[in-house]
Amino acid sequence: MKKALLLVVVLVVNMAPGFAVADDKKIIAINTGNTSLVLMANNQGKVFHKYFGASLDKPEEILNCLPYDPRRYETFEACSTFGNENKHEVALKVRHADGNMTTDLRYQSHRQTRIDGNVTETRILLKDDHYPFLVTLIYRAHRDEDIITSRISIENKEDGTIVLEKFASADLVLSSGEYWLSHFYGSWSGEMQMEEERIGKGIRIIDSKKGIRTTQSENSAFLLSMDQPSREEQGEVIGGALAWSGNYQLCFEIDSRNTLHLTAGMNPFGSDYHVDPGETFDTPPFIFSYSDRGKGQISRNFHRWARKYSLRDGDKPRPVVLNSWEGAYFTFDEDTITKMITDAASMGVEMFVLDDGWFANKYPRNNDKAGLGDWQVNKKKLPHGIDYLIDHAEKEGIKFGIWVEPEMVNPKSELAENHPEWIVQSAHRKPILMRNQLLLDLSNPAVCEFVFEVVDDLLTKHPRIAYIKWDANRHVQNFGSTYLPADRQSHLWIDYTRGLYSVYERLMDRHPDVIFQVCSSGGGRVDFGSLAYHHEFWASDNTDAFTRIFMQWNTTHIYPPMAMGAHVSASPNHQTGNSSPLKTRFDVAMSGRLGVELQPSHMTDEELDFAKKAIAEYKRIRDVVQLGDLYRLISPYKENRAALMYVTEKKDRAVVFAYTTQYHIRQDYPTVKLRGLSPEKTYLVEEINTRSTSKVFNGSGKTFSGNYLMNHGMQLKIRKSNETACLELTEKR
After folding, report:
1. Strand 26-31 relative to strand 629-634: parallel, antiparallel, unpaired?
2. Mean pLDDT in the chain?
3. Peptide bond between residue 572 and the one before it cis (omega within 30 degrees of 0)
4. How far apart are the C-alpha atoms of 4 and 418, rounded to whole Å?
């Protein structure tokens, strides 16, 4: 039975024409395909949360059962502020021009605009009851994807400067018996680990204060399951994610009545922001979704939304990439690279990407200690230049891409010598190096222009470059800006990210056909803020197949698989030392955007032949993997195996991946029940990506009904560690 999930979101829309409200109380509702969000504005102009959950046909019926003591419950405002009756963490805290630190917002008006046939935008104007201080709550509801985005816009019409001390994008209220939080944590080479915990009374905060690489340790996305730990296809679950690549804060507070109050937005830590008269301050979108069909549906909602509204070119399959990093590192010359390109092409790779080490002359980039910031082609390594490599790649029938890290600088560089004032730095403090580098100050428009010109010049001088890997290998230390005035140093956290986004946007406009990958020491920018400007992300520098089973499982709870770079690398793995069969490495990587990260010349003829066949298989199924709906079948956290599958929207094709993570005793072969198929359709099941004629599924090459495959399932003959299977399903007409 569907349950109402409760009071929530900051949301207002037009009422139906002629709708009458008793006692001047206004019910304001908004719907996606399967969800209703309801607010109530009282006769004092305060707007409160009333409901968030499965669709309500008649949200006005809420007025028939208002609480006996409205003051006890009318305390969760659509945008909670400091200084009134709120007793919990607030979404907005302001120091007005006269020094008053309290704010009391009242409803002024609202309007609803249909952006297209699927998206409706609602804007709610609130004003302080004394000051000319305006807040607009802005929501976009995506009907088909069951996704809502929330953000606020703050306008200062006071006589003097105001200071924003807290500024959340979303302010939600939930009510349930228990709350189970799934969140993501990690560090370099171990990003996107997942943990689920029951939230107790008090406050639980997930945040980042790093400024850059803000999702490497904790991610700004989460799942909340109501009453019980999350399940794949049953139960009420909310998913949320912030579209911001700077510092963020997610705050979960459970009060004495067991109500959960959630605020999400930019982290206010050290970020007091001055807004001058006539200026506006906008927060980034918070994306959230509700499901009463488990967390699997939440994932599919986010993936569909991302492909259509967030990710660049989300309707276009991604190419198979070979990146030079683990195959060559810094030690290469022209012959090394041209040979890698030739070998990559022979394997069926479609894009070769030259990684770090190709630039700088006075201080050549032969390691990570020098050259960063000096973006000239290294004449000793590449005497014929980049176009020579592009010509060779195109002759071999593939495209060419290149690595950049334009936000960073080595102290040993011409850039650092010529523009020391461009570096983020603390007065009177010794510089703190990380990976032998410092950070450029993107709060400074001159630095933004430099960073833009680095990439724009590269793409303009070499217009056949088809792919940019954008890296960022440290976070903010030595906090301070030579550009920002003394009283506005706290703006650096926010203005840096805004400056970076402005550069991204200009490059997008100038070079719309170039594929951009976001990387930040691996998974430091896996967030929807960066994905608005990129086609894909690098999930982690850890390419070990065993580790990636878990990491990719976790990442795709929120982020779309088509955007997740997943590469086949050497064995033993360079990060973990683990050894895995080549088939295992391909089967794991093929569940994302397949790539290769090794030196082909180190592979045997047998391995090269298998890689060529595997890449050809992936090209045939990649539209299903990259554009299909994900169903997680068996969790590696619950069993010593894992299984997942992708299904097309028409349910005419599917791909199943199955992995073992430990040895299964006594011929214990797993049975995998599929999901997402049409019960009435008949499917031909074929095992693909095999190394021999031996099959792991006895029914390979035979047909089965969708009903049989979902209710009875398939028994797969895999039981040893590192054994894997990949099966393709095609509707038999």
Report:
1. unpaired
2. 93
3. yes
4. 62
Element (H, E) at 112: strand 105-114
308's tokens = 């259509």
Q: At what angle do helices 385-395 and 334-347 cross, to 10 degrees?
A: 20
Determine the average pLDDT of the residues in 473-485.
97
- d(CA 495, CA 269) in angstroms, rounded, equals 14
Peptide bond before 600: cis, by omega within 30 degrees of 0? no
Record the tokens describing residue 564, joined without a space: 């997740």
Supply the DSSP symbol for 631. E
Question: Rounded to whole angstroms, how far apart are CA atoms 502 and 521?
Answer: 22
Whether 471 is catalytic is yes
Calpha distance 293→237 (Å, rounded): 8
The helix (H) or strand (E) run that includes residue 222 is strand 218-226
Q: Which domains does the chain have, with CATH numbers?
A: 22-171+244-289 (2.70.98.60), 321-626 (3.20.20.70), 631-731 (2.60.40.1180)
| pLDDT digits 0-9 by tens, 522-535 | 999 999 999 999 99
Name the phi and psi angles at 189, rounded to 5.
Answer: 75, 0
The verdict on whether 272 is a catalytic residue reads: no
Tokens standing for residue 665: 């005793």
Helix 582-589 and helix 545-555: axis angle, to 10°? 10
pLDDT digits (tens, 9 = 90+) for 133-174: 999 999 999 999 999 999 999 999 999 999 999 999 999 999
The pairing of beta strand 408-409 with beta strand 438-439? antiparallel
Phi, psi of 168 (to 5 degrees): -75, 150
Amino acid identity of 49? H
125 pLDDT more than 80? yes
Among residues 593, 676, 588, 672, which one has the least CA distance to residue 635?
A: 672
Please pick, among 374, 471, 527, 587, the residue that the annotation labels catalytic. Answer: 471
d(CA 495, CA 440): 13
Tabulate helix, strand, coil % of the chain (nearest 5): 25, 30, 45
In the chain, what percentage of residues exceed pLDDT 90? 85
User: Cα separation of 286 and 300, whole Å?
Assistant: 17
Token pair listed for 610 = 């298998």
Strands 465-470 and 399-404: parallel
- Tokens describing residue 691: 């190394």
Helix (H, G, I), strand (E, B) or coil at 691: coil
CB 466 within 8 A of CB 515: yes
**Residue 331: how many CB atoms within 10 A of its CB?**
10
Contact between residue 436 and residue 475 where contact means Cβ atoms under 8 Å apart: no
Q: How far is CA 548 from CA 7, 348, 727, in A?
A: 38, 23, 19
* Cβ atoms 566, 548 nearer than 8 A: yes
Closest CA to 143 of 162, 119, 125: 119
d(CA 359, CA 374): 7
Interatomic CA distance for residues 295 and 288, integer angstroms = 12
Structure tokens at 452: 């833009």
Core vs surface per residue 439-463: b (16+ CB within 10 A) or e: bbbbbbeebbebbbebbbebbeebe
Q: Is the pLDDT of residue 341 over 60?
A: yes
Q: Which two tokens stand for residue 16?
A: 């139906």
CA–CA distance, 113 with 588 (Å, rounded to integer):
44
Catalytic member of 541, 544, 587, 629: 541
Q: Which two tokens stand for residue 181?
A: 């939080």
Distance CA 449, CA 320 (A): 32
